[in-house]
Amino acid sequence: MNIEKIIPTDFRGCVSISKKEEILFQRAYGYADLSNKVLNDFETRFATASAGKIFVAVAILQLVEKGKLHLEDKIGTLFDFDWKQIDPGITVEQFLTHTSGIPDYFDESVMTEYEDLWYDFPNYRIRSNKDLFPFFINKEMMYPKGSRFQYNNTGFVVLAMILEQITGMEFDQYLEKSIFAPCNMTHTGYYELDRLPAKCAFNYIFDRERNNYRTNIYSVDAKGTGAGGAFTTVGDVRLFWENLLSYKLLSPAMTKNMLSNHSGENRCYGYGVWLTEAGNDFNPHFEGCDPGVSFISAFDKENQILVTLVSNYGDNVWKPRRDIAASLLLSVSKKGGDPIES
After folding, report:
1. How far apart are CA 262 and CA 268, in angstroms?
2. How many separate domains does the chain show?
3. pLDDT of residue 340
4. Tell me: the pLDDT tens digits for 253-286?
5. For residue 244, which phi and psi values (nearest 5 degrees)?
6. Domain containing residue 147: CATH number
7. What is residue 17's predicted lDDT score, i.e. its pLDDT?
8. Looking at residue 329, what is its pLDDT?
9. Which of 39, 99, 144, 311 counts the most CB atoms within 10 A of its CB?
10. What is the pLDDT of residues 123-156, one digit of tens each?
11. Whole-Å CA distances, 304 to 26, 48, 321
12. Does 70 map to a domain?
C-alpha cells in the first residue's frame, strides 16, 4: 500500500502513521516559513486550533480524580462573580460535553470565519481566557442547560478558568505540569504569536485579491485559550495518545468514561474528544480548524493505529485521513496485510 499516493501533491504540513510504538509512515511537506523557504520537518511545532480542548478535558478529569473538583459542580459556586443572563447552574460535565447552552463567543452554526471576530476588537488583546469575556458575558443562553448538544468554544474557556481557579496557575502552565511534562511532550505549549519559540511553523492564508499568501497573525487569538491554540509536533501527539491510552494520565475507569459517548444519539462526543462508531465501541479523535490551521489525530482501537495530519496552510486533512483509514483497513483485512510503502 502506497500512502504517498493518497496524500494530495499540494499538501503542506506533516503526516504521521504509527502502530503501537512503530512508525509506519511519516512525511513532512511544504514550508514552515514560506518567505525564507524553511521546510517543515518532524520537529516543526504546528498550531492545532481546537484540538487543545482535549488537553483541558484531561486536566479537568485529573482534578476530579484528585477530589478537587466534581463533574456536578456548578459555575455559580465555583466563581463568585455575576454571570448575568448565563445560568449559574451549568455543571462542569455540561461544559465537557458541549451541552451547557452558554453563549458561544464563536458560534460555528452562524459564523464561518474566525477572523471576523476581530473587526471591532483587536486580536492582539486576546492573551488569556478572561480576555474573551466581552464576547459572551452579556449574551443570553443559547438553549437551556443540558437540553442538547451544540459544539461550544466558550465552554472550554470556562473550563480553563476553572483550572486556574482551583490550581492558582495559568491554565497552560498547569497543562505543562500535569500533562506535557509527564508525557515528555517537550515541544508542546501555548505560545504568543509575537513571541514564538524556535521551530514553530507560520500559518498561511491564501489572499485571492493579491494572489499570494499572508500569515494568520491578525486572524486568531494572540495566544491560545481553553478553546484551543496549542502548538505541538506529530511526535508529541503520539506521546500524548500513548500516555492517555496506557492510563498514565487518568485511571482506567476515568479514561473509559472520557472515551464514552456523552452527547446523545445524534452526535458522538466524549469528554473533550470526538468519537466515531466502530462496531460496539468508539474510535476517538481530536481535531481543529482555524484560518491557516487544520489538524486531526485519530486512533483505531482495534488495529492500534494512530493517524495524525496537520497543515499550516489550512489544507484539507479530513479527506486524506479518511482515505488512509480506508486503505489501512483494506490492508489489514487481507491475509498478512500489505506493508506501507514509502
Report:
1. 7
2. 1
3. 64
4. 999 999 999 986 666 999 999 999 998 899 999 9
5. -65, -45
6. 3.40.710.10
7. 97
8. 76
9. 311
10. 999 999 999 999 999 999 999 999 999 999 999 9
11. 17, 23, 15
12. yes
What residues make up the domain containing 90? Answer: 3-333
CA distances from 151 to 5, 47, 244, 316 (A): 34, 20, 23, 20
Q: Which residue has the cell 447552552?
A: 101
* pLDDT attached to residue 139: 96
pLDDT at 332: 61
The CA-CA-CA angle for residues 16, 184, 293, to 5°, reads 45
> 123 and 222 in contact (C-beta within 8 Å)?
yes
Determine, yes or no, domain membership for 176.
yes
Bridge partner list, 129: none
Type of residue found at 258 = M
Helix axes 53-65, 153-167, angle to 10 degrees: 40
Q: How many Å from the N-terminal Cα to the C-terminal Cα in the chain?
A: 9
Residue closest to 232 by CA, chosen among 273, 179, 272 = 179
Contact 171, 163 (CB under 8 A): yes
Q: How open is the CA angle 96-117-131, to the nearest 5 degrees?
A: 60
CA 250 to chain centre: 18
Give buried/exposed letters for 54-64 (b at 16+ CB in 10 A, else e): bbbbbbbbbbb
Q: Can you read off the three cell numbers belonging to residue 98? A: 458541549
- Domain-located, residue 270: yes
Distance in angstroms (rounded) separating the CA atoms of residues 184 and 19: 19
With respect to residue 144, please indicate whether it lies within any of the assigned structural domains: yes
Q: What is the distance of C-alpha 309 from the center of its chain?
A: 12
- Range list of β-strands (E), the chain: 13-19, 22-29, 31-33, 38-39, 46-47, 204-207, 212-215, 231-232, 274-278, 281-290, 293-300, 305-311
